[in-house]
Sequence to fold (90 residues):
Amino acid sequence: MKRILWLIIGIVVGVYAVTRLKKRVQVLAPESMQESAAKLAAAVRHFGDQVREGMEEREAELRDSLGIDTNSAMPPAPPTTHPDTREDYR
Fold:
C-alpha cells in the first residue's frame, strides 16, 4: 500500500514539474520574447505620444495666458545641414 501511495505521489509531482517546465519554455521562446518586445515598444511609443500631446496642450495654455500670437512669432527655421551629417545627442 505504501508503494502505491509513493507511486501516485511521484506521478503527480512529475506531471506538475513537466507542466511548469512547458510553461517556462513557452515564455522564454523566441516568438514570446519578440511579442513581449513589441508590446514594450508599443507602450513606449504610446507614452511618448501622450507626453507630446500634454506638452502641446500646456504650450497652448501658456501661449494663451501670456498673450503670445503663434502666427506672428514663429521661431526661425533651424539651419539645414548636409544629409550625411548627424548630430551627436550624447
In short: Residues 30-66 form the longest helix (37 residues).
